[in-house]
Amino acid sequence: APQQGSLRVLVARALVEQGRPREALAELHSMPPSAGRWTAEGEIYLDALDRPDSAAVVLEKALQATPQIPNLRYLLGRALLGSGNAQRAARAFQPLAAREPPFEESRALLAQAWRELGRAAAADSLERVDAAAKRRTRLSELRLEGLQFSVAGELEPALARFDEALELDGNHADLHNDRGTVLARLERYEEAQAAFRRAERLAPEDPTVQRNLVRLYERMGDDAARVKALARFRELGGEGLDDR
Questions:
Q1: In whole angstroms, what is the distance from residue 124 CA to residue 65 CA?
Q2: Are 112 and 127 in contact (CB under 8 A)?
Q3: pLDDT digits (tens, 9 = 90+) for 3-32
Q4: Whole-angstrom Cα distance, residue 190 to residue 216?
Q5: How confident is the model over 204-219, as pLDDT tens digits?
Q6: d(C-alpha 200, C-alpha 207), whole Å
Q7: Quick check: pTM over 0.85?
Q8: Taking CA 44 as the corner, what is the angle to CA 41 and CA 48, rounded to the nearest 5 degrees?
């Protein structure tokens, strides 16, 4: 299929992987001009040949042909930044950094462009926002992994994920509650109680914490503490636990 350009792009990418970027360019140059060809050329100039100025030229053409593709804007921004055009790079990264979630490393690169333009305060602020967002994302990933391990009965890996997540945010009530549940299943009751109490201090209106305390005290055989936790559970509108 000699006219199928997408195959030539794949061949070019394979040549780059083999360390043959100039042969890859020759393969692409045998194609008619198109956004796909220019994009592939731009990636080779940018990442394999360290020629951001040449990358910027072809990526501009690709972006004009397909302006709706965010990856092209990102690549163009990188090329412009690498060739010393921080002002235009910042304009390329700004709409990507404003997305929720932001596109790839667009916030970090926008901050770099601002710093090169002398806007240190704006760069510092954006980097703090970006770091906080990455911490939240990582925390969510760790918590999900911990819950998945817990459901599968793999309690030690679950506990390790919750502990790692709490290093990112020690005041996350749900994480303390999750951790207490795993500790209770491991029969580490005193540690479980401490985890639930921490969750209770952080989220005093959450009936889930009280429900877990009721169940913990039942396992521990502490009837007085169980009755007190059950009363608080019901005060918060919780249902489904009996008086035994």
A1: 35
A2: no
A3: 677 898 999 999 999 999 999 999 999 889
A4: 10
A5: 999 999 999 999 999 9
A6: 9
A7: no
A8: 165
Q: How many percent of the chain have pLDDT more than 70?
A: 98
As a whole number, mean pLDDT of residues 47-70 equals 95
| pLDDT for residue 106 is more than 90 | yes
Nearest residue to 211 (alpha-carbon basis) of 232, 188, 185: 232
Please report where in the chains the tokens 């703090």 appear, as a residue. 128
CA distance 116 to 90: 10
Query: 59: closest CA among 92, 107, 94?
Result: 92
Distance between CA 22 and CA 235 in Å, rounded? 73
Say how many C-beta atoms besides its own lie within 10 A of residue 141's C-beta: 12
Answer for the pair 62, 42: CB distance below 8 angstroms, yes or no: yes
| CA–CA separation, 150 and 168 (whole Å) | 20
Burial (0-12, 13-18, 19+ Cβ within 10 Å), 80: buried
CA-closest candidate to residue 55, choices 23, 89, 31:
89
- Count of alpha carbons within 13 Å of 8, Cβ hemisphere only? 22
Torsion, CA 43, CA 47, CA 50, CA 55, rounded to 10: 20
